[in-house]
UniProtKB/TrEMBL annotation:
GO annotation, cellular component aspect: cytoplasm
EC class: transferase
Pathway(s) where this gene product acts: Amino-acid biosynthesis; L-cysteine biosynthesis; L-cysteine from L-serine: step 1/2
GO BP annotations, alphabetical order: cysteine biosynthetic process from serine
Highest taxon in the source lineage: Bacteria
Family annotation (PANTHER family): SERINE ACETYLTRANSFERASE
Name by which UniProt lists this protein: Serine acetyltransferase
UniProt keyword list: Acyltransferase, Amino-acid biosynthesis, Cysteine biosynthesis, Cytoplasm, Repeat, Transferase
Entry-linked CDD domains: LbH_SAT
Amino acid sequence: MRRLQRFLAVLREDLEAARTRDPAARTAVEVALGYPGVHAVWAYRVAHRMWREPGLRLPARLLSQFARFLTGIEIHPGAQLGRRLFIDHGMGVVVGETAMVGDDVVLFHGSTLGGKSMKKGKRHPTLGDGVVVGAGAKILGPVWIGDGARIGANAVVVKDVPAGAVAVGVPAEVRVAPHPPEAVWAEDPAMYI
């Protein structure tokens, strides 16, 4: 019973995260029924739970691929996603197997948390809490993106980004001095997407 209550609390938290971060979201019902980013995160949560059981890895992978078919968002069940992840629009988002995503992260459509190596081991990025990844941005390799950092639209990040910084360009460069992570939602994140 407690597991079910915790699971329902997480689902409600995901709905509230979408409503908080998307000014177009009107009701929790609208988000629950019509937001593919939320659907992809929910499917991931089930698939990730299955992935942790060695005998369920194939069904977990098949569930993640079915969710990809339905939503256009591919999240490997081995990835580690934090709480209140919001994927806005979502189409084309890819999150690799060894990616680690902190709490309160926003990923915009077309963003990739991918690898640059075919070797086993940690090959995908780690995102801290409160990170915003702009539309079409690619974060490649086992890089670290600090808390509250912003990745600009279509940036290609192949090096670490410090907490609170803004990275833009190809290859991405830190263009704005870091700001305190607690100011993350004080400014309009749309200026980076």
